[in-house]
C-alpha cells in the first residue's frame, strides 16, 4: 500500500509537473528515491507511477554522454501497490549505478508484479502514450530522460534479445497493440 504523503518531500521536477500535472501522491521509497502517483493517467483504471531521485543523480551512456533518468510505469489500478514496490526497486538499482539505461533495454521483472501471467519483463521505451515533449527535459543539467517501462511477455523479451529492439519496435508499429494491456496477446 502507498504510504501517506509526507510534508518533507523532494521537489517534483517542473518538467514532470508541466506534462503530467500535479500527482495524486508523492512519497519517499527509500535511499533518496521518490515516487509520484498519477491516478487515471493516461487512461481511466490506470495509474502512472514516476520514480525520481531527491537529488540529481548523474548517469552516463556507454559513449560517455551524461544524463539524468526518471522511470515511469503505467499499470492497472489493481496493481498500483505492487508496481510502486517494483518501480522503487528498479530506481534504486538505476540510481545506485553510474550507467544510463538506453531505449530498447529489457529489465527482468519481479514475480510479484505479474502474478504468473504472460508478462515477464520491462521494456525501456520513450513515454509514447503521453505528450512527446515529456520524453526529454532539455532544460535540466544534464538533460533528464523519462523512461517508460512497458510490460512485455517472455516471447517478446526473447525476440528483443535475438532480433534487437529496432525489429521489435517495427513489429509494434505494424501491430499497434495496447502496451498498457497486461493481458494482450504477444506481438511475436
Give your account of this protein's structure.
- With 188 residues, the chain is α+β, with helices and mostly antiparallel strands.
- Helices cover 26% and strands 30% of the residues.
- Strands 1, 2, 3, 4, 5, 6, 7, 8 and 9 form a nine-stranded mixed β-sheet that branches.
- It is globular.
Which percent band covers the strand fraction?
25-35%
- Please compute the radius of gyration using only Cα atoms: 16 Å
> What's the helix count?
5
Low-confidence stretches: 1-7
- Give the N-terminus to C-terminus distance in angstroms: 34 Å
Gross morphology is globular
Class by SSE composition = alpha+beta
In sequence order, what are the helices and strands, one letter per element? Answer: HEEEEEHEHEEEHH
The average pLDDT value, as a whole number, equals 91
Percentage of residues assigned to helices: 25-40%
**Could you give a short account of the major beta sheet?**
9 strands, mixed
Give the number of DSSP strands.
Answer: 9
Note the topology.
Blueprint lengths: L13 H7 L4 E6 L2 E7 L6 E8 L5 E2 L5 E11 L3 H16 L10 E3 L2 H4 L4 E7 L10 E2 L6 E10 H10 L1 H11 L13
What are its keywords?
single chain; disordered N terminus; alpha+beta; 188 residues; 9 strands
How would you summarize this macromolecular structure in one to three sentences?
With about 190 residues, this protein is α+β, with helices and mostly antiparallel strands.
Amino acid at each position: 500500500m502507498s504510504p501517506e504523503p509526507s510534508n518533507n518531500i523532494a521537489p517534483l521536477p517542473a518538467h514532470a509537473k508541466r506534462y503530467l500535472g500535479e500527482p495524486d501522491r508523492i512519497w519517499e521509497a527509500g535511499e533518496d528515491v521518490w515516487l509520484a502517483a498519477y491516478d487515471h493517467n493516461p487512461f481511466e483504471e490506470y495509474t502512472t507511477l514516476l520514480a525520481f531521485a531527491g537529488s540529481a543523480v548523474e548517469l552516463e551512456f556507454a559513449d560517455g554522454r551524461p544524463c539524468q533518468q526518471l522511470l515511469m510505469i503505467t499499470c492497472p489500478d489493481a496493481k498500483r501497490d505492487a508496481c510502486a514496490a517494483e518501480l522503487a526497486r528498479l530506481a534504486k538499482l538505476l540510481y545506485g549505478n553510474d550507467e544510463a539505461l538506453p531505449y530498447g533495454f529489457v529489465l527482468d521483472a519481479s514475480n510479484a508484479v505479474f502474478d504468473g501471467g504472460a508478462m515477464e519483463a520491462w521494456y525501456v521505451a520513450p513515454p509514447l502514450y503521453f505528450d512527446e515533449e515529456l520524453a526529454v527535459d532539455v532544460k535540466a543539467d544534464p538533460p533528464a530522460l523519462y523512461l517508460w517501462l512497458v510490460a512485455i511477455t517472455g516471447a517478446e523479451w526473447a525476440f528483443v534479445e535475438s532480433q534487437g529492439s529496432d525489429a521489435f519496435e517495427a513489429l509494434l508499429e505494424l501491430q499497434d497493440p495496447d502496451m498498457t494491456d497486461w493481458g494482450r496477446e504477444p506481438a511475436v
